[in-house]
Every structure is written in structure tokens, then in C-alpha cells.
Amino acid sequence: MNRETQASPTRAEMHGGAWRPWSGERQPARLRAAPIIRAGLRIALRKKLPLVLLFLPPVVATIIFSFVVYTVAALAQGMAPAGLGGAGGAMGQALGGGGGAGDFVKQLVRVREMIVGFHLSTDFFSVLLMAWFGAGLLAEDRKSGAHLLYFARPLTRFDYLLGKFCIVAVFGVLGSILPGLVIISVAVAASPDWSFLQQEGSVAWKTILFGGAWTLVVSSLVLAVSSLSTRKSYALAGVFAWFMFSGATALLLSRLLKDRDWLALSPVQCGVRIAEDLFDMRLGVRDWNTPLAWTAWGLLVALSWTVIWWRTRRLEVV
Amino acid sequence: MGLVRLEGVHKTYPRGKVRALDGLSVELPHGPVGLLGPNGAGKTTLLKILLGLLAPDQGVVDVAGHSPSTREGQLRLRQLVGYMPESDCLIPGQTGVETMVLLARLSGLSEKDALSRTHEVLDYVGLEEARYRPVEGWSTGMKQRLKLAQALVHDPELVLLDEPTNGLDPAGRRHMLELVADLGRVRKKSLLVCTHLLADIERTCDHVVVLSKGRVLSSAPTNSMIGGDLRRVRVGVRGDARALAQVLERRGHACSSLDEGRFEVQLQDEDADVLFEAARDAGAILLAVEPKRGSLEQTFLDALAAQEAGA
Fold first, then answer.
1. Residue A83: what pLDDT?
2. Residue B77 domain-assigned (yes or no)
């Protein structure tokens, strides 16, 4: 909208500030949540100590797993890295290298197993990341009255929640998907003739799918608890209480009733089963059905968003 | 034609079946307008409708040519309206500049415009030195001015101010009223000032709307509401005030509140010459003749009383 412009700013006599009418055009961004995402990430990245403490374990794990995967992949082509004594050396033998061409596929499978193992071992840290940076997003807005400022703008509840969700999801991606992709890249680079990509290329999209689903589940849960809380600390406690309580309940019921399907009550147990099935592996004796695990995750997401939607209705109040 | 036009607007909240607005019709002119009303009068509902947060059940709402009856219209409306909430509100973890830039971006300003407007408006409200400090550490007065600044950052056609002086100390209150008066009367911004402090409205608004039970009790220029009755004057006298009062009463003008050379006269018309003639005849000298000024409070209470009597 073109509006009348004033040639020069006028001076407010009483307070010394200049009032200058604005002559530009108001055109909300195509993705109206984008400013919220940027602002939220800027605030999160400003807190250095939590960033270092929370990102350190995934980073260290990524480095260690990358090294191990590199070693195994290198062994698969019969070229152990220098310092490991070659494929026939002590380290090479310990890692199962030094075999003939028939072991090549086995080595690639071992790399895949390591990637899945990495996912499962770093799930806890990704939960920590998402919970720490997401627990206050709705709770603190409610406490500080920020919703009054947001909803007085051309912003829908969907835009607002999308913005908040993306902030949490970024940390889920950084803690879950990105490290997995880094390790896969190392495996691809270290394997002879891109053989890992050719033989086990599906691991990449499966990593994205599994990490994405895990991020969706945890982000939704974190935001739902945040929407029910009045403070970040309460929301943080609520998220961990949920994981601990659901895990303990699932384990107890499955033992008492001798039915492993009860493990579906725990999002973490569901994640283990889904990962095993998705990556076509059997890490344990978890023989309960996978569709039930997906359903449990789906229900948790649906329940979380129902709570969020219901709770944020109250935010749209002047 | 006014900036805001409401015609036969009804709004009932389903829960409790509270009728918040009951056929409200009013046209708000450009410039600063005060909104008065007791609790439950429908002020907040009116603000929500003007902000596009609520759609009326019935009736016509027009704000600068836009209506909140559709979702698209509501969003468009929020681009045209700035809102300063009554209660405390800030975006945690942000500095003044970051808060303003974020809200400006959400209002549709480009990154560059948002930043330049932020600095201009923060300068205008006197927050230029605190702009890079986290807002959590700001004083109440500074937070209140930030709330005003964010309502102005996109230079909206209409600014809704809900209790702008709420919680401020005398100096902060004075500063805020100066800003509001400057915006409305000098910069000619259209403001709707919702407050229970009638003195604030007298000081900042050119037009007053009184609401009660979801209806408009009165809508008139502030001057006409507080102007009082020009036939009722206060008189200061040197000499025999009692004799002057007797002369005036003999001529049909009622006098009251006689004390220490001052009294009030109810003239039969607005011609004050009769006072001077009577003073000459009574041998007194008039020191002061001033129309008795009404107060917005009295007008407000009278309007409410009249409504109660009508009900």
C-alpha cells in the first residue's frame, strides 16, 4: 500500500524523538512463521553454555562412530588406515577385518549396524536437546504475555505453532539426523568405489525418515507439555517425567502380563522396534509388531497436537 | 466518513450466553478517541473485533474499508491496526530491537524496513539507549513505552491503546500521556484509547465514546462532553456579594453557594451582560466570571444513571 510520505521528520517537542510516518508496503512473508523461527533460533543460540554441554555428547559420539565406521569401511576394501596395522593387524583383526572378498558385504552390513546403533544411542541426547530448547517456547510465551503481541499481528495459530515447532525440530535434526548423515557420508567416502552407497544407499533416506519421525514425536510431546506448563522448568520436568514414567510402565506391564505389545507405551521402545524394522535388523528379542509401534507414535503425535491446539486457543485472547 | 464504522453489531459468547455487544452502532472519527465504560460494558470485545480476533455474530464492522467477517479480512485488519495490550507482555530473551524487528516483520515489513522503523520508533518513545538490552531488565515505564512502540512500528492506520498508563509512576505516566497526546493531536494518528482514568481521556482525546451493556451511551467530542452548561457561571465579587445575589435573584437568575465573595449563578440565557448590569446596580465589582466546567466523570456517571433509569 502506498501511503502519503512526509518530506522530513517532524520533531516531538515533549520528548525529543522524531516521528517519521512510514511510506513502505506491508507484505507479510509467504511463510509467516519464518520471523518466529529466526528469532527463536537466535535466542537459543545465544545461550552458549547449554549449547556446548548439550551438543558435546552428540558431537563426540559422531566423531567416534565416524572413526569406527571409517575403519570398518576401509577394512572392507582390505586397506586398514595407517596406524592400525593394516587389515591383518591387531586392530584390524579386532574389528573383524582382513577377510577375503566374501566378507566385503558383511563389513558393509556392520557399518549399517553401527549407524543404527548410533541412532539408538544418541536418542537420549536428541531428547535432551529438544526438551531444553523447546520446553519454554509456549510456557514462557504464556507467562510473559508474548502471545498478546504475536496474535495482534496478521498471524494465525497455525503460523505461530509452525514457527515454534520448527525451532524444536531444528534441534532434533541437529541432534538426530545430521550426525547420522555425517557418519553415512564417512562410510560412503571410505568404502571402495562408492560401494556403501550402492549396496546400502537406502540407509541414508531411512536415517532421514527415522530421525524425522523421532523428531516429530519428541517435538510434539515437548510442545504439548510446554503448552500445559507455566514455566520452562516445569515443562522440562514434565517431558522427562513422561519418558521415565512411560518407559517404566511399559516395561512393568509387559513383564507382568507377559505381553511385549505393552512396550508400545514407551516412545523409546517404539523407536527401537521401528529402527530395527526400518533398517532390516534384529538387535534384540523384541518380537512385538512394528505397526503397533508406528501406531503408538502416531497416537502420541495426535494427542500432543490436540493438547497444543486446545491450549493455544486460550492464547488468542486480548 | 470515520475511520471505524460499526453498525448493529451483536456478539454473544456461547459459554454462559453473555451478550457482550448488543446492537452496537457507532462511527469513530479520525484522531484520538477515548473509550469509556464500566466493567462488562463490552470494551474488550470491541477491541477484539477491531483487531480481527473475533468476528461479530451480526452487524457491520468497517475499519478503513476492511471487515473482520472473514479469516482473510481479519488478518488484513491486523496489518492496519496496532495494539498496545493492557497487561505485561514481552518476548522473553530478546532485546528491545529484536522484539521490535520481529513484530515489524510479522506485520509485513521487509527486513530493512523493519530495522529502520524499529530505530525510528524507539527513538521517538525515548528508548534509544536501552534498545540493545534484554527487555526483562527494563523498568515498568520502559516496558510500557516498548508496548507503545511495537504498536506503532508498522505505522498502522488505527492504534488501540488499552490502559496506556497502567502501573506507571507519576513521571512515567506524564511521559506516556505526552506521547499519546502528541501522536493523536500533533501527528494526527487515529487512536482508540481504552482507559478507566477519565482524566487521561480528557487530556489526550478529542472524542469520547461511552459504552455500557454492549451499547453506546454517548459518542461526542470531548469538549462538548466536559463543556458543561454555559448558562451556569461562577462569579467572584469585590464588595457586597450578597446584595449582588439578591439583585440577580430578583431578575430571575438563581444563585447558590454563597461564600466569601463567590457564588454560582444560573443565568436564563448565555448572555453574561446581565451580570455586569446587576453588579453596577448592586455597587459591586466583578472579579471573575467563568462558566462552570463540567467533568467527564460527571457526564459518564450521568449517562450511566440515565441508562439505569431508562431500564
1. 46
2. yes
Question: Residue A153 is nearest to which of B47, B106, B186, comparing CB atoms?
Answer: B106
User: With a cut of 0.85, is the ipTM above it?
Assistant: no
CA distance A152 to chain B (A): 6
Is residue B293 pLDDT above 80, yes or no? no
| SS3 sequence of chain B | CCCEEEEEEEEEECHHHEEEEEEEEEEECCCEEEEECCCCCCHHHHHHHHHCCCCCCEEEEEECCECCCCHHHHHHHHHHEEEECCCCCCCCCCEHHHHHHHHHHHCCCCHHHHHHHHHHHHHHCCCCCCCCCEHHHCCHHHHHHHHHHHHHCCCCCEEEEECCCCCCCHHHHHHHHHHHHHHHHHCCCEEEEECCCHHHHHHHCCEEEEEECCEEEEEEEHHHHHCCCCCEEEEEEECCHHHHHHHHHHCCCEEEEEECCEEEEECCCCCCHHHHHHHHHHCCEEEEEEECCCCHHHHHHHHHHHHHHHC
Asked whether residue B165 falls in the same domain as residue B263, the answer is: no
Q: Which of A2, A6, A22 to mutate to test the interface with B (most CBs of B within 10 A)?
A: A22
**In total, how many domains does chain A have?**
1
CB contact under 8 A, B154 and A26: yes
Q: pLDDT tens digits, residue range A130-170?
A: 999 999 999 999 889 898 899 999 998 999 999 999 999 99
Q: Is A231 inside any structural domain?
A: yes
> CB pairs below 8 Å between A and B: how many?
141
* CB-CB under 8 Å, A39 with B85: no
Instruction: Compute the nearest-CA separation of B231 from chain A (Å).
Output: 36
Quick one: B21 and B162 in the same domain? yes
Does any domain span residue A318?
no
Taking Cα atoms as reference points, which of A275, A115, A272 lies closest to residue A179?
A115
Asked, for residue A120, whether it belongs to a domain, the answer is yes
Cα A15 to Cα A30: distance, rounded to the nearest angstrom: 38
Residues A115, A211 contacting (CB under 8 angstroms): no
Instruction: Record the cell numbers describing residue B111, joined without a space.
Output: 527486513
Cβ B205 vs Cβ B171: under 8 Å: no
What's the number of CA atoms in the CB half-sphere (13 Å) around residue B271? 6
Quickly count: other Cβ atoms within 10 Å of residue B72's Cβ: 12
Check B105 against A318: CB less than 8 A apart: no
* Residue that terminates a domain, selected from B172, B203, B226: B226
Confidence of residue A102 (pLDDT cuts 50, 70, 90): low
**Would an 8 Å CB–CB cutoff place B129 in contact with chain A?**
no
Task: Please check whether residues B30 and B109 belong to one and the same domain.
Answer: yes
A residues 18-57 lying closer than 8 A (beta carbon) to B: 18-22, 24-29, 32, 34-36, 39, 42-43, 46
Mean pLDDT of A57-73: 86
Q: Test A152 with B154 for CB contact under 8 angstroms.
A: no
Last residue of a domain, one of B199, B226, B253: B226
Domains in chain B: how many in total?
A: 2
Residue B42: domain span = 4-226
Interface test with B, best of A6, A11, A13, A26 (most B CBs within 10 A): A26
Is the domain of B23 the same as that of B151? Answer: yes
